[in-house]
Amino acid sequence: MNDNLKKLLGEEYKERFSPKEFVPGESFIPVSGKTFDEKEILNMTEAVLDGWWTEGRFSDLFEKRLSEWLGVKFTAIVNSGSSANLVAFSALMSAKLKDRRLKPGDEVISVAAGFPTTVNPIVQNGLVPVFVDVDLGTYNINIEKLKKAIGPKTRAIFLAHTLGNPCELDKIAELCEEHGLWFVEDNCDALGSVYDGKKTGTFGHVATCSFYPAHHITMGEGGAVFTDDALLYRIIKSIRDWGRDCWCRTGMDDTCKRRFSWKLGNLPLGYDHKYIYSEMGYNLKVTDIQAALGVAQLDKLEDFIQKRRDNFDYLYEKLKKHEDYFILPSWSDKAESSWFGFLLTVKDDAGFTRDDLIKHLNEKKIGTRLLFAGNVIKQPYFVEKNIKYRIVDNLVNTDLVMTNTFWIGVHPGLSKDMLNYIVNEFNEFIKNMNKT
User: Fold this and answer.
1) Is 215 a residue of the active site?
2) What is the mean pLDDT of residues 299-322?
3) Taking the complete model, does pTM exceed 0.85, yes or no?
4) Which position among 205, 215, 216, 411 bears the catalytic label?
5) CB 329 within 8 A of CB 387
6) Which DSSP state fits 366?
7) Which of 23, 98, 404, 407 sits between 20 and 30 A of 258, alpha carbons compared?
8) All domains of the chain in start order, with CATH
9) Contacts of 110 (CB under 8 A, 6+ apart)
């Protein structure tokens, strides 16, 4: 790309995306959002000018750099975090795993307080989700109840780190080792979180991440699947790439030097290996334009993580005086979170409801979100499709999350003025509630 075009694109970026003054009560404060500069624009333009557009050099570079940063052997980027979860779990159903493969009817332990696409791949693959309650404060799975959930049909555990707050990974890994279970780690909200000195997304047999604009880095749309297992990686790539048995990179042929010599399935000898399908797959790749955006975002990842931690710490320090009204976030002594949001649960005796507070915040142009599905088994699709599942003990805390819990943003786009305004509106709301 020539210097004149770079200069023009830089000027266009500044004209279109220069920061706007924050006006309290008038400027909307989003709960999440992307942060970028002209480097993302330049990278994506470079990818467009390559004229290739599908998976290519930027995709290769992104996978290589993310693998190195995370400390995993293999990364496969896909078109969303939801697709990443589907691919990860579908890979465990592959016949290539022989006796280790998951089979329809097997049970998978998870939580109902989370995002639906952590649970949906379990159901879609004919497996039975087993729901365990969460602990309030961390909103992660209760370990003692997890132990009780393990039964003769249990074959896997599939958990997300709630809003970037790591699960008790040492205990979960120990249980998986003891009982011979697969562990799938949904790291979509937790890129950069650390547990006991090791990054989340590296504890599971397979792990996933999302690059939706709300997340720690973005490709616009995108996700990734991670593993250290070479066989699993090959299965993952096959499912992502239409289910092909062929492992050639996009645009390449005959890497195996046996393209017309294979005899697989009931196909005739010599059937073109590029059109032999050993898995049930789809095209779930990203474009190289998306990957180019991701490469530029990776350069900012460490700064993004630190800003999220700083914003979380600031909100915690300012809002802890209201702990008579809220259950504040909590976390393991071994955890260093790369926070996705700041979770609060309104106590039953607070004198106001969650709906009262979030209505006030939204009227003051402060964005809020619930903890996703709340209790997924009460969502319309779960009820209407009569999905089979099992509950261990009860989901009392999960139901409380559904009715009393919400979160506000900590993303890097928030300024100190915005954070102060948020805190002031909490203070004003509680002061006014105490007058009534």
Assistant:
1) yes
2) 98
3) yes
4) 215
5) no
6) B
7) 98
8) 22-243+278-430 (3.40.640.10), 247-277 (no CATH)
9) 118, 119, 122, 129, 130, 131, 132, 157, 158, 159
